[in-house]
Task: inverse folding
């Protein structure tokens, strides 16, 4: 397959997955914003989305404050925001358009009709439909696209590069989701006060729900929500489709099939081993934030290495 | 649709009976459905200079243009004959130039033509084919007479509309296809691939064929992607290709892979930034030297444009006689070359009855339709003609055939032309159909999509018992 085609497929997958992840994240935050405000816990809810100074500045240049309406407008519909859901769908669609000759007609039609549907949506339309329903619709369109790809694409390199994009984006997203709350991880802290415990329950419950892992948590741990276990579930448990472990296992297998002698594969092997030998107690003692940050940069390096080994970068 | 005596043509008899039973509302509903289908399939063309919204549909008319088997056989024979002659002409002018020495075509028309490529001189093309894909734009003026408006042997486009218009019609009106004998066109990509494979460089057994596009922002990108997909070949841009040790390679996930045949949809001037336009980011540096050494076949060949400009058009019937020893099956529109003093005088005296065109113009721009023009416009053009007579030709306005078309006020006749697609390389063949373009404005003769033209599906009816597809 052409390197440039593989590159397009990889990014098409990443953008589509990103649009879904953003929708999931926003759904969670939106639900939390509806919780009764307690002791200022609501403050900084939306602001927390903007982790770097650049992101904050880009937002504040156009909008007047970190409130529900402006933040959702910016994150969902703003065409100047390259990570808005609308921009992601557009980028995914353009990457599909560039490679539609290796994709099935059904895939093109799915992404193109998603784009045509979202292209002219206004914030008013979103309000009419309801935030929850609208974000749910985005998620469903992503499910649909994934399903169509699985159900129609020939099993070959194109399919593998698409999957690789999906799992790299998804792993990065799960780490980002956890890292955003890393400051609340306090190593062996004193007994929590009852009200913060409640807040934590909602926060972490929402996070689990946003990655469809709430039920799994209940089934596996049969206990109240505990930070350590949430992190264990979402990083180390291979049974959870959006856990880092599940994603890295997939990446490992894809690279093993594509080119086992590549540096990319060595890199993936190393990342997988790190997860397999990790224990949550040890991670907790040495600092979750550091673990997540290290792992995030490991994934980023893998992504760069894949581009060197297979894609346009020479 | 109607013959000269006002009767309904045979080819339309069944369809017309069906159409009478349809309500306008149902047709309009089908029309909207078609628009939706085209948009969803992304059969759009890009409007330059607009952002993400800049994708437009070419208007599609749900009423087909229908040709009988007899009418088609004239067109088919004529189009093949014409393209065979053009290929012979191209081989000749890049080799011995016998047609010039015989005094049939003036030397300066060839040698000073901007599309003439001296680099092609003496180069042998596989099977002596230069135009692998050609479009012959024709109109019918009476029962048995077709006029050729122009030949397209550079990188003719539009064939995806022939295929998708049919696909759409079959989705919208399955009942019609169940009861008619419409010749299928869907093997076009297969025949195209076979033509391309047939002209691979000598000694290459299982040639790698690619389609080269200027990229996804080109107005015809949909067609490029569509054809690559249908043929199962790679769709490449200049940046995907490079020259190494005298061959062309593409960058793949498994390393470099040699390319043998390039079906390019990039114009001559952009192919090789070393030889032509140094600013072109669309081409492949050094590709020309590989073409010269015969290690890659570029289709259509470079320099084919010399055969299809409006000044050369006048000589095509002579080419047919010269190379094939036959009389032309399709007629040229009587054409006055303003470079000839007698013709110029005639054009100036009769400008209000003529269509005047620029020799190198295209897309319906830079032309004067005499009967529709004001006196001032005619006078303006007379000045242009006197200043640069070489730059113009003129033709009488034709009684173009019309076809029923769904418009605002209902079903009304509109002027149509037809571009059948001719493939050369394996053997010269024409798909039974083509791209019918229709002028949607009442009375208008201009069918170009840039000027309010639309398209129709083109039906060629098979004679009873006949199978028109041949290998």
Result:
């Amino acid at each position: 397959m052409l390197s440039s085609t593989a590159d397009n497929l990889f990014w098409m997958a990443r953008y589509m997955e990103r649009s879904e992840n953003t929708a999931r994240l926003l759904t969670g935050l939106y639900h939390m914003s509806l919780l009764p405000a307690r002791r200022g816990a609501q403050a900084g809810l939306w602001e927390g989305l903007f982790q770097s100074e650049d992101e904050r500045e880009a937002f504040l240049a156009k909008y007047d404050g970190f409130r529900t309406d402006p933040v959702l407008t910016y994150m969902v519909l703003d065409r100047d925001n390259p990570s808005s859901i609308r921009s992601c769908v557009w980028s995914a669609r353009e990457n599909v358009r560039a490679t539609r000759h290796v994709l099935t007609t059904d895939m093109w039609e799915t992404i193109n009709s998603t784009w045509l549907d979202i292209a002219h949506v206004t914030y008013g339309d979103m309000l009419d439909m309801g935030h929850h329903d609208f974000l749910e619709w985005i998620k469903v369109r992503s499910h649909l696209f994934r399903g169509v790809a699985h159900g129609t694409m020939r099993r070959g390199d194109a399919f593998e590069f698409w999957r690789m994009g999906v799992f790299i984006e998804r792993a990065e997203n799960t780490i980002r989701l956890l890292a955003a709350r890393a400051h609340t991880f306090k190593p062996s802290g004193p007994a929590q006060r009852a009200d913060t415990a409640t807040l934590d329950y909602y926060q972490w419950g929402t996070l689990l729900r946003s990655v469809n892992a709430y039920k799994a948590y209940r089934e596996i741990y049969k206990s109240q929500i505990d930070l350590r276990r949430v992190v264990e579930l979402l990083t180390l448990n291979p049974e959870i489709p959006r856990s880092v472990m599940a994603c890295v296992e997939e990446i490992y297998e894809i690279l093993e099939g594509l080119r086992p002698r590549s540096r990319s594969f060595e890199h993936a092997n190393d990342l997988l081993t790190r997860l397999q030998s990790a224990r949550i107690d040890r991670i907790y003692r040495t600092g979750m934030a550091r673990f997540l940050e290290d792992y995030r940069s490991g994934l980023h390096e893998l992504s760069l290495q894949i581009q060197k080994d297979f894609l346009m970068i020479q | 649709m109607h013959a000269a005596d006002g009767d309904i043509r045979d080819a339309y008899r069944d369809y017309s009976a069906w159409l009478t039973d349809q309500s306008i509302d149902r047709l309009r509903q089908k029309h909207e459905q078609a628009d939706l289908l085209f948009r969803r399939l992304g059969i759009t063309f890009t409007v330059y200079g607009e952002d993400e919204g800049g994708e437009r549909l070419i208007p599609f008319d749900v009423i087909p243009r229908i040709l009988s088997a007899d009418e088609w056989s004239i067109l088919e024979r004529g189009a093949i004959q014409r393209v065979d002659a053009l290929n012979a002409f191209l081989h000749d002018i890049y080799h011995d130039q016998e047609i010039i020495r015989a005094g049939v075509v003036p030397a300066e028309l060839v040698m000073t033509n901007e599309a003439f490529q001296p680099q092609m001189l003496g180069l042998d093309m596989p099977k002596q084919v230069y135009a692998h894909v050609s479009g012959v734009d024709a109109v019918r003026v009476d029962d048995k007479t077709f006029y050729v408006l122009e030949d397209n042997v550079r990188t003719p486009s539009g064939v995806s509309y022939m295929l998708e218009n049919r696909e759409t019609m079959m989705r919208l009106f399955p009942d019609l296809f169940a009861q008619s004998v419409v010749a299928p066109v869907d093997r076009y990509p297969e025949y195209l691939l076979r033509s391309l494979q047939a002209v691979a460089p000598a000694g290459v057994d299982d040639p790698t064929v690619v389609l080269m596009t200027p990229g996804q922002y080109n107005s015809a990108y949909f067609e490029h992607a569509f054809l690559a997909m249908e043929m199962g070949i790679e769709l490449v841009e200049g940046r995907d290709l490079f020259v190494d040790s005298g061959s062309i390679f593409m960058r793949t996930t498994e390393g470099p892979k040699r390319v043998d045949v390039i079906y390019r949809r990039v114009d001559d001037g952009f192919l090789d930034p070393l030889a032509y336009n140094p600013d072109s980011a669309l081409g492949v540096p050094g590709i020309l030297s590989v073409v010269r050494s015969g290690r890659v076949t570029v289709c259509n060949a470079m320099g084919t444009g010399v055969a299809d400009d409006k000044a050369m058009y006048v000589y095509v019937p002579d080419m047919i006689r010269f190379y094939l020893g036959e009389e032309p099956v399709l007629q040229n529109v009587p054409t006055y070359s303003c470079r000839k003093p007698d013709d110029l005088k005639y054009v100036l005296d009769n400008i209000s009855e003529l269509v005047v065109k620029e020799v190198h113009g295209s897309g319906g721009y830079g032309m004067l339709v005499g009967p529709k023009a004001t006196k001032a416009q005619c006078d303006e053009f007379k000045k242009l003609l006197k200043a640069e007579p070489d730059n113009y030709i003129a033709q009488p306005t034709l009684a173009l055939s019309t076809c029923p078309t769904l418009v605002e006020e209902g079903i009304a006749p509109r002027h149509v032309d037809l571009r059948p697609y001719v493939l050369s390389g394996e053997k010269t063949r024409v798909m039974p159909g083509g791209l019918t373009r229709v002028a949607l404005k009442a009375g208008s003769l201009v069918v170009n999509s840039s000027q309010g033209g639309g398209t129709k599906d083109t039906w060629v009816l098979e004679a009873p018992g006949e199978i028109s597809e041949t290998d």
About this structure: The CA atoms of residues 201 and 295 of chain B lie 6 Å apart. The longest strand of chain B covers residues 133-142. Chain B touches chain A through 23 residues (CB under 8 Å).
